[in-house]
């Protein structure tokens, strides 16, 4: 399945049905009068959030959606049938913008949450509506109004409480695979992960917490380099960042600062988001090297850091305990 997190679509609501001109013609009714019915309202375009979708793939190839038009009125004061609304399902976490004005129309985060993005046109009035003491036989009606038309930009931001960040090959996918049932692709080359991976990690209470592995952050990601520019937006909804640093790198502290600078440059409050820092791949270091590295980080950050091995699971449980404490604050 392709991961599509942005799409642009045109939505066209239905046109209202026309009103008609008609008169009663019944036996023994000498002055029947006007009886033209109103047109029916056009159908609206509605977006509905659903938990059954994870991407905007349904909008990759279909770019235009149109609701039904209302039907014209009928004789004997009959109102025309209203056009059926068109409901489009989108994944939870979809933000809906007017593509022409950049106005945020809505943020669909909860299952079954709905948003009307294009309202159907009103039906026209039949000549029965214009009957008055002065005008006993009106011979005019009104056409139905056109429905709203909009070009929408849909942006999906994943709903996760914890975002796992770090440079490529820091072990983010390995960690999420060891903590949850997620099975992302894992290999020993950069940019193995091309899409964000979600995994549900169970708390001791039995509740599930969603972790997101955010791929491809490198220096210059906020300017479009690497993959980070495409996926930095997914960190915006997270409450906590879990920053993994490859302890086997030549300059691990420089790696840490690179990611911090990208978060600050991107903005949206990411630089101030609560973080837990963990040195990964500690099973590949000797004790003296690891101790020196920990002292270097704690002196720079002025707080304790975690030492883990995502492959063997060493240190992951104390790390999770710290995550639960941070989320409960």
Question: For the residues shown, what is the average pLDDT?
Answer: 84
CATH architecture assignment of the largest domain: 3-Layer(aba) Sandwich
Largest sheet: 6 strands, mixed
Q: Quote the CATH topology of the largest domain.
A: Rossmann fold
Distance between the termini: 37 Å
Q: Bin the strand percentage.
A: 15-25%
What is the domain total for the residues? Answer: 2
- What Rg do the Cα atoms give? 29 Å
Order of helices and strands: EEEEEEEEEHEEHEHEHEH
The total count of strands amounts to 14
Considering the protein shown, what is the CATH homologous superfamily of the largest domain?
Answer: P-loop containing nucleotide triphosphate hydrolases
Shape: rod-shaped
- Low-confidence regions: 189-193, 221-228
Q: How is the largest sheet built, in terms of strand order?
A: 10-11-9-12-13-14
User: What is the helical fraction, as a range of percent?
Assistant: 10-25%
Specify the structural class.
alpha/beta
Q: What is the count of DSSP helices, taking H or I runs of 4+ residues?
A: 5
Q: What is the CATH first-level class name of the largest domain?
A: Alpha Beta
